[in-house]
Amino acid sequence: MKEINFKSVFITCAIGLTIWFIPNPEGVQPNAWHLLAIFVATIVGIISKAASMGTMAIIGITLCAVTQVLAPGDPAKSIVNALSGFGNATIWLIGLAFFIARGFIITGLGTRIAYNFIKIFGKSPLGLAYGLNTADLILAPAIPSNTARAGGVIYPIMKSIATNMGSHAEKPETHRKIGAYLTLSSYNANMITSVLFLTATASNPMAQKFAADLGVNITWGSWALAASVPGLVCFLLIPLFLYKSYPPELKETKEAPAIAAKQLDEMGSVSLKEWLMVATFIILLVLWIFGNLFAIDATTAALIGLCILLLSGVLTWEDVKSEKGAWDTIVWFSSLVMMGSYLNSLGLIGWFGKLVGSELSQLSWHWAFPLIIIVYSYCHYMFASATAQVAAMYSVFLSVGIAVGVPGTMLAIFLGACASLMGSLTHYGHGPAPIFFGSTYVDLKDWWKQGFYMSVLFLLIWFTVGGLWWKAIGLW
Asked: Which of 37, 169, 315, 395 is close enough to 319 for a disulfide, judged by CB 3.0 to 4.6 Å?
């Protein structure tokens, strides 16, 4: 019972029942309204931590089956529809990519890549920041859990370097030497690498799926192309911006390359399994980018990659079975995608989009576009993950934008990116946040203040640099 928060359970049930018994608005089917009650209650339960995400997801699926909101009067079809999320290829893409990411950690390849960048760039705090962030960037396309990238690869190395530079977590007076600076730089860079690639964090494929439900098709390549320029500008500016707004006391870190070199010596030469991991990584990137030429979609490519790793011995089936994060994600993601898809197919998303769109109809899309983005972005204060925000709000905001004439692909990708970009706001705003905040290098006040500064910087770059880039590639 330790994972159950009974106060949050009571609040969650109260909100769900209140919506359920409110008469459905004109133009909305009763079962669609009742599905909304289950969906909102599930999201509230996740946000308030009434129970684990997996528990809330299973409860949501069960309620959809028991109440027959997906197929009134047909219990057999109701359970089939309630479980339909498990047949979604996008969900399995995320799960498969988790398994593949395991190879980077087991072989030590991810750690080796990070130390090599520190060895090359680590003579100053700026160089260290860029070295760590570049390692994250290289790993991002193949590790869909930014929490795994941060917690399994980047954070342990960052903390080790900070400690060796005299910035000790247990000594607050040493935090600003370099530990606090590297913490915020690594965390915010993780938010950026998460939006550069469709497969870099779990919320991106969810946004892709919801966009497709509204007639906006996004591929791995089109996402990467649209996000590349504004994303890389943000990536380059993060260490420089923090160096001015939250500077480290140390200005030189000449010992860091030697520390990295020592760690690399201890690791020894690149193993056969690491080379196999590199080869698999390259094959995956080629298939994800050029898969359309071979009639291979992203999920099939991930299956091919996993098969290579299993047949070559880089991974074992025990590794796959023990990847709890993947199986957990498949369960709760299936639940949220299933409910989100049926809210759309039952007409509720379209109804709400027209309702709000009519209020914005007097505005040109050029004014509606930034308004939609800004409101959506700062709603992230209410969310503890990008996935929860995308599940709760993405389809609604995208449908509103499309209704008032905002170019669909541009809005879909920007909204998808905002869910991760705004993870910078709080110490709970994204999966890696508790990991970095838990280092204690940055106090709560500074985290929120610097996070707000970052959110403004990110939005300015995506509106200006991104807007010009999207014009150049024909998105508007």
From this structure: 315
Contact 436, 179 (CB under 8 A): no
Residue 28: CB atoms within 10 A of its CB come to 17
State how far the alpha carbon of 146 is from the alpha carbons of 104, 151, 203, 346, 377, in Å. 13, 8, 10, 33, 19
Q: 153: which DSSP letter?
A: I
Residue 322 Cα distances to 51, 317, 360, angstroms: 22, 9, 49
Neighbours of 394 (CB within 10 A): 26
Q: How many residues does the chain have?
A: 476
Q: Supply the pLDDT for residue 140.
A: 86
Q: Which residue has the tokens 């193949």?
A: 142
Q: What is the pLDDT of residue 119?
A: 83
Please state, in angstroms and as integers, the Cα–Cα distance from residue 386 to each residue in 150, 198, 416, 417, 424, following that order. 15, 14, 9, 9, 11
CB 186 within 8 A of CB 316: no
Contacts of 35 (CB under 8 A, 6+ apart): 64, 69, 70, 339, 342, 343, 346, 348
Find the helix packing angle between 89-107 and 203-213, rounded to 10°: 160
The separation between CA 411 and the C-alpha centre of its own chain, rounded to angstroms, equals 17
Angle at 393 between CA 388 and CA 397, to 5 degrees: 150
Residue 398 · residue 375 · CB < 8 Å: no
Q: What is the pLDDT of residue 416?
A: 95
Predicted local distance difference test score (pLDDT) of residue 35: 94
Tokens of 155: 């954070």
Q: In the structure encoding, which two tokens stand for residue 107, read together? A: 């072989």
Is the distance from CB of 121 to CB of 128 less than 8 angstroms? yes
DSSP one-letter code for 96? H
Place of tokens 């299936």: 334
Residue 301 near residue 219, CB atoms below 8 Å? no
In order of 66, 79, 82, the CA distances from 62 in angstroms are: 6, 8, 8
Q: Which among 263, 232, 250 is positioned nearest to 176, based on CA atoms?
A: 250
Decide: 90 and 297 in contact? Cβ < 8 Å. Answer: no
* Series of mean pLDDT values for 10-residue runs along the chain (476 residues): 84 94 91 93 86 89 94 92 87 78 79 78 85 88 75 76 80 90 95 92 88 91 95 96 93 80 88 90 79 79 91 93 83 83 81 74 86 90 80 86 91 95 88 82 91 96 96 94
CA–chain centroid gap for 422, Å, is 11
